[in-house]
Design brief:
- With 383 residues, the protein is mostly helical.
- Helix 7 packs antiparallel against helix 8.
Length: 383
């Protein structure tokens, strides 16, 4: 009998034996910032009064701002110390889409600062911070929405049937700008500036929506033809909720500020559009949520363990909270109020679990460890 040798393997990572470095600190870490900031802004948007909630949301916003500073510093250190790995991330079709998270992290912290952060730093400082972060986030989001698909076409060239919900990350970033731009519309003087920002947000809404409609059939087709995603990637199914909930949030927020930016006839039409668009899309979001939950339960039974993809349970659900809150505001239906509250409970639960597991992974060094090399099976044949 003769056997083939095993592929080279590496010993399990030990935080005590080896100090974690930034080499494997990828752009997916911005998801921790997004998922934390949305807890603050979604809680403030709830159409129900819950004692102590605003104070808790303010504290969460402070945490998200500190997280943003820490992740930005770590990513800068990553690029400075490991430029080869940073370029490898851009060339990796599984990692490059996460560059869209940078934009959404900047936007989420700036937007929630305008909503609850002003209770800590005051309105002028919150406005200045949001202007900086919104500008930077919108520019980086638009760049990512073009650059990442370009890399997919000319460099990545993924195989047919390998579409992933992660592909939505760069194209959903402009939708976040569209949803948070209304916070700045009233801050501009009446006239061309307000109208330009409002219509610019609608343009980004359309850009992101149409790009999502192009990619979503690829994702569903991959599921139908190739079956469920690998266990570690199953939480990314929740990413599909992002453009759905965020677009519903956008049309409702834009309708709120339209009367001060455009004529009465257009403002009335945009208010009607918010409901006519938002209700069907929220219905589809709930359908996808049920499907995603079923597949996550299946994966959990199959042995799914914690990874950074679990942060996909947070921000997308938060956008559905703000979307349902906007529909409750414009329709007056109590059902949307209860839906927003129920989704917020799900959001906070997911954020708490992901946060605790992430802290544990950081303290042990496991989340910053190099990827484990797969072990090839021992092959045997008769000599």
């Amino acid at each position: 009998m003769a056997t083939y040798p095993r592929t080279r393997t590496f010993p399990p990572y030990s935080g005590a034996a080896r100090r974690p470095a930034l080499r494997h600190f990828g752009p997916n870490w911005y998801a921790t910032v997004m998922g934390t900031a949305i807890v603050a802004s979604a809680g403030a948007a709830l159409p129900a009064h819950i004692p102590g909630l605003r104070g808790a949301c303010t504290a969460v916003w402070v945490v998200s701002a500190l997280l943003l500073a820490a992740v930005l510093a770590a990513r800068a250190g990553h690029w400075a110390a490991h430029p080869d790995q940073a370029r490898a991330h851009l060339a990796d079709p599984a990692v490059a889409p996460f560059y869209g998270c940078l934009s959404m992290a900047l936007l989420a912290v700036g937007g929630s600062g305008m909503v609850v952060g002003k209770d800590v730093i005051g309105h002028p400082a919150a406005l200045a911070l949001n202007v900086v972060l919104y500008t930077a986030g919108t520019v980086t989001g638009l760049v990512a929405a073009v650059a990442v698909p370009y890399l997919m076409i000319v460099r990545h060239r993924p195989e047919p049937g390998t579409a992933s919900p992660v592909w939505l990350l760069p194209v959903v970033a402009p939708m976040v700008s569209a949803a948070l731009g209304p916070l700045l519309v009233p801050e501009l003087p009446p006239g061309q500036g307000r109208e330009a920002l409002l219509l610019g947000c609608y343009a980004m809404f359309g850009l992101s929506l149409l790009a999502t409609l192009v990619m979503l059939p690829l994702v569903f087709g991959r599921l139908v033809h190739r079956g469920p995603l690998p266990l570690a990637l199953t939480p990314t199914l929740f990413l599909v909720l992002g453009p759905l909930g965020q677009s519903t949030t956008a049309v409702n927020a834009l309708a709120d500020v339209a009367p001060g930016a455009v004529g009465g006839a257009y403002a009335s039409a945009l208010r009607a559009f918010a409901v006519l668009y938002g209700v069907p899309v929220m219905g589809f979001a709930l359908l996808w949520l049920a499907l995603a939950v079923a597949l996550v339960v299946r994966a959990a039974r199959g042995g799914m363990t914690f990874s950074m993809t679990w942060w996909g349970f947070t921000f997308p659900v938060g956008t559905c909270v703000t979307g349902a809150a906007g529909l409750a505001r414009h329709t007056g239906l109590t059902a949307f109020t209860w839906l927003a509250v129920a989704l917020y409970v799900l959001l906070v639960s997911a954020w708490a679990v992901a946060g605790v597991r992430t802290v544990r992974g950081l303290l042990s060094g496991a989340l910053l460890a190099p990827p484990q090399a797969p072990v090839a099976p021992v092959a045997a044949r008769t000599a």
